[in-house]
Amino acid sequence: MATDSPIIIDQPYVPLLKRRLPAGRPRSWYVTHNRRLKAMRLAIALLDSGVYRADLADNEKIRRTADLVGIHPPSDKTCRLVRDLMRTRR
What is the pTM (predicted TM-score) of this model? Predict the structure, then answer.
């Protein structure tokens, strides 16, 4: 359904309420889950700051962006995941 009129956003973005993670999973599942969330937040922050290509996002730039956004510095593994998310085309 296509409309010709623009969508007007008059309210600021409000994130969804956080829910508790499901209990009973192995620790590795929680570590991977939190790493993916962190990588996604960092990828979005990089895209918002104008870094659109993964090859322009080195570990240092990702860590500087994390500092600006208020996220703990990511590990090398998380930095790799950020670049992988930026490369993915769906």
Answer: 0.77
